[in-house]
């Protein structure tokens, strides 16, 4: 067979900068970065709690520093962005069927947001109870 | 008639050009001029050496996929009227380019064949006899389950859209996995067990990170991303069952 | 040149080719024969034109229907020019084949109880057309292609352009093909060869066909002495989109769509198809459900009388589907909605679709006997490229998808059988023929002529449209015939711009044009000599507007002649089951046995 | 040359089952937690309370101590720390692949290993606290 010369450009590391859709994908994946920061904060909190009141107070102060608040604010936004993307995926990965028809995806997305709100209210009740 | 500038990526290794280059053409167009019409215009009026694939020109044969301004599209279903400024046309991404806009589809076909994309059912082939001409029963609701996934025209746009395929051509990819899922969901099929090993592989469903662009570009609304990710659920179930069965 | 020995070579990966390949494989398995089966196609099989078929495939299915009725519809639909023995075989085997497709996974549309649904189609007495929404051909082709993957004995050469068949001592001996990817030739020595290369709709300017439907196989057989039969019968489909020619399926009318002229009048009632049926109550063989030839002719008459509308540069009438409602349209005709939206920016839910007739189907083709074999031993033909004799002077919609299956299978089985009994031809004679092809291609590359294929092709399709259109008259046809012969001469003086070997699509189009010119000659010659009106062949001359059974109840056979113009002969028609009667639709057809 | 034969479907080396279902299962569970529980956690623990919008007493040492070292506290650690950690690990691992960094094996060990380590730390902390 005659030799075929084909051109096969390798995908470069920065492929995701080439299309807006891929940037959004990378943003979605990157939501875990501020999340990790928040999780480390929680872990630190747990251990300061173990070391007594003073150290706990130190952690609370740390949490109040503007930089920490700023990063955590980012984490909060990231969590909502994540929720927004994740909820849309769910009905496609696990379509719920009722009476031979697939449940409308929008309904499922809405249901999940409803869950988020319920958790918020519950959290408010837990944290503000008896204050 | 107004004209539009088309920048077409050329690749002509036989002429000694071992890297692609861009060539501009000005094309007269109106509301009904598709990208494919424009390519045909170039070939017939300006440069007979331009090579590309096409056939049905009604968005069903799946042969005319190209990158239009960096997004995979069917040339016959994309219209110049929808683009501001010059239009950039390149061969489908993530495939080896053979000449101009023609890519090597071999790997795509191998991937399709790998998932055993046909109905597997023990019941005797009626081909053997004159009688027994009974169809299977399948209610509209049963058909509804896989119908969308049976609409794939094998155009390969989703492979060009999927960076995971770009990063690893061994990945079976959206269309092949969708086809596997289509047959797995078919109430007449009994072949899921045979297909699962392919899907269970690292290069099966598990190379997908739900980028989702495959479904975005799919010209037939097949939603391959959904199929692939439903395939993950199936593969996970398959693993669990395997563990319980020892 | 690469060479391989293959028992059964199949040229064409459309519905007919794939069905033949599977049948050959099944047949070999059943008889425990070791046979190599090779399917060649100039495009990947699933790109073949069968993929565009929309409406459905016919077979007697329901209790109320009968084989006799399907037989009568087909014979009458073909204006008694069908081979009746063949029609009889066809109607008896169609149902079995559609069931087989179902068993291979084809998603036929269903009734609530899970059984297969049928729809109405033009020229058919009852609803007997199986469908998969409005993408029947797509689903059939993909089902066949995918099923073919199950058979390791079916090998494929995808994107191989077959240049010629090789014939040694009156029997087929192989094929010579060009690997599109490299420009290299390959010689396949074969015991049986099946041509399944599809129709030739691209001979006409305005058509519903894919770009690859250029009649290559017909020309190959023709050049080796096989007759092209009934080529003058070219079907115009009444509903193509203006501009592109993209097809709007007949199923639209089967589901209840109506045709109106620019005044909103259902003009078909003026052309022997009435009385007007109630809106939303389509009635078989009335009005919009008349056969395609009649409907296209009615358009032409309306156009002559100035009652057509305009869409862009095209004269159009309108297909109104609005009364069917959005939900029904989206369920039954989703592809149509999509096509109308994309190509002419019309939403069928809200507006009538402008349409006009477009060349759609080649009734004639490579002459075969009832077993799909041509007069060259071991050379078979099936599908649209063949003239097995099923369609006569006019094909009924949805008969051809079933034809692909019934005769694709028969050809496959016959080919396998033959391959078991003969030996390969002597390869020296073969090599000579292969060498001739090599020289032919080399000459094309080297030619320094001043003709350009684009120009020639344009002139060809235009002259075919004017000379051999819906209505034909002698002067027009003579001009066209002269023109074709002139084009044939000019073709010898052609020049390629692209000199590369790999993926030379220009070379491909040049070769296709060469084949097309031969077929065009056969078509035009048949039309000129058939001095009557029958089925899709409609003459304008005052004294030729009627069917003339005395002189023309005959197939036309056109033979190639390397030295000069092609030759025409007449062949008797098999009418042993149903004597010719009047072909009528609407109320006029009521009393007539059909 | 293209042959219509299907690929080798034997249980050969390249047909190995991926271990991904385990990581994907953890990733998905973590994703749900990230979307449903984490926003509320960040909102209260890292934003509203440190910023003083919700009463400073909400996270008094004693109150925090009793809240964390309890059964609901354990559930909190599981849903808001451990599972999201695995979610993050999974995305970071695939992100590294997307950016063509590291090797498949190394990335796996580093990310899931990290998530496991931090999870164990959290659980150990909890255990110490409750004893
Ligand atoms: C838009 C449209 C809608 C239709 N709808 C219906 C319908 O609803 N019902 C119905 O019954 N019929 C319908 N028809 C008709 C029917 O679809 C065709 O007659 C049928 O599909 C032809 O199939 P085939 O297998 O003969 O050829 P094709 O499907 O055309 O296949 C031809 C094959 O031959 C190959 N080939 C050709 N030349 C060469 C060469 N030189 N070398 C190598 N390979 C070659 C091609 O690559 C291709 O694979 C429709 C037709 C059109 C145009
Ligand atoms: S899934 Fe869609 S994009 Fe992918 S090959 Fe099929 S039709 Fe094309
Ligand atoms: S784009 Fe690729 S990563 Fe998955 S969702 Fe689609 S296959
Ligand atoms: S030409 Fe067939 S899909 Fe575009």
From TrEMBL, chain A:
Keywords: Cell membrane, Membrane, Transmembrane, Transmembrane helix
Keyword Cell membrane among UniProt keywords: yes
GO cellular component: membrane
Spans traversing the lipid bilayer: 68-87, 107-128
Nucleotidyltransferase found in the keyword field: no
Entry-linked Pfam families: Fumarate_red_C
Protein name as annotated: Fumarate reductase subunit C
TrEMBL record, chain B:
Pathway(s) served: Carbohydrate metabolism; tricarboxylic acid cycle; fumarate from succinate (bacterial route): step 1/1
GO BP terms, alphabetized: respiratory electron transport chain; tricarboxylic acid cycle
SUPFAM superfamilies per record: 2Fe-2S ferredoxin-like, alpha-helical ferredoxin
Top-rank taxon: Bacteria
Chain ranges of the 4Fe-4S ferredoxin-type domain: 143-172
Cofactor(s) recorded in Swiss-Prot or TrEMBL: [2Fe-2S] cluster; [4Fe-4S] cluster; [3Fe-4S] cluster
CDD domains referenced in this protein's UniProt entry, alphabetically: fer2
An MF annotation (GO) of this entry: metal ion binding
EC numbers for this chain: 1.3.5.1
Keywords, comma-separated and alphabetical: 2Fe-2S, 3Fe-4S, 4Fe-4S, Iron, Iron-sulfur, Metal-binding, Oxidoreductase, Tricarboxylic acid cycle
Family: Belongs to the succinate dehydrogenase/fumarate reductase iron-sulfur protein family.
NCBIfam families: dhsB, PRK05950.1, PRK12385.1
Designated name of the protein: Succinate dehydrogenase iron-sulfur subunit
Natural source organism: Vreelandella rituensis
UniProtKB/TrEMBL annotation, chain C:
Broad class of where this protein is predominantly found: membrane
Localization annotation: Cell inner membrane
Residue span(s) of domain Fumarate reductase/succinate dehydrogenase flavoprotein-like C-terminal: 458-585
Catalytic activity: a menaquinone + succinate = a menaquinol + fumarate; a quinone + succinate = fumarate + a quinol
Annotated residues for binding of FAD: 12-17, 41-56, 216, 384, 400-401
Limits of the FAD-dependent oxidoreductase 2 FAD-binding domain: 7-401
Annotated residues for binding of substrate: 237, 249, 360, 395
Membrane topology qualifier: Peripheral membrane protein
Keyword Magnesium appears in the UniProt entry: no
EC identifiers of the protein: 1.3.5.1
Record flagged with keyword Electron transport: yes
InterPro entries: FAD-dep_OxRdtase_2_FAD-bd, FAD/NAD-bd_sf, FRD_SDH_FAD_BS, Fum_R/Succ_DH_flav-like_C_sf, Fum_Rdtase/Succ_DH_flav-like_C, Fum_red_fp, SdhA/FrdA/AprA, Succ_DH/fumarate_Rdtase_cat_sf
Active-site residues annotated for this sequence: 292 (proton acceptor)
Keywords: Cell membrane, Electron transport, FAD, Flavoprotein, Membrane, Nucleotide-binding, Oxidoreductase, Transport
A GO term from the CC aspect: plasma membrane
A Pfam family hit: FAD_binding_2
Source species, domain of life: Bacteria
Top enzyme category: oxidoreductase
GO molecular function: electron transfer activity; flavin adenine dinucleotide binding; succinate dehydrogenase (quinone) activity
Cofactors required: FAD
GO aspect biological process, one term: anaerobic respiration
Subunit structure: Part of an enzyme complex containing four subunits: a flavoprotein (FrdA), an iron-sulfur protein (FrdB), and two hydrophobic anchor proteins (FrdC and FrdD).
NCBIfam families: fum_red_Fp (TIGR01176), PRK09231.1 (NF006686), sdhA_frdA_Gneg (TIGR01812)
Name of this protein: Fumarate reductase flavoprotein subunit
TrEMBL record, chain D:
Transmembrane intervals: 21-49, 69-88, 109-130
Location of the protein in the cell: Cell membrane
Keywords: Cell membrane, Membrane, Transmembrane, Transmembrane helix
Membrane topology: Multi-pass membrane protein
Family annotation (SUPFAM superfamilies): Fumarate reductase respiratory complex transmembrane subunits
GO MF, one annotated term: succinate dehydrogenase activity
GO cellular component: fumarate reductase complex; plasma membrane
Pfam families the record matches: Fumarate_red_D
Gene Ontology process terms (BP): fumarate metabolic process
Annotated family: Belongs to the FrdD family.
Biological function: Anchors the catalytic components of the fumarate reductase complex to the cell membrane, binds quinones.
Self-association state and partner proteins as the record states: Part of an enzyme complex containing four subunits: a flavoprotein (FrdA), an iron-sulfur protein (FrdB), and two hydrophobic anchor proteins (FrdC and FrdD).
Protein name: Fumarate reductase subunit D
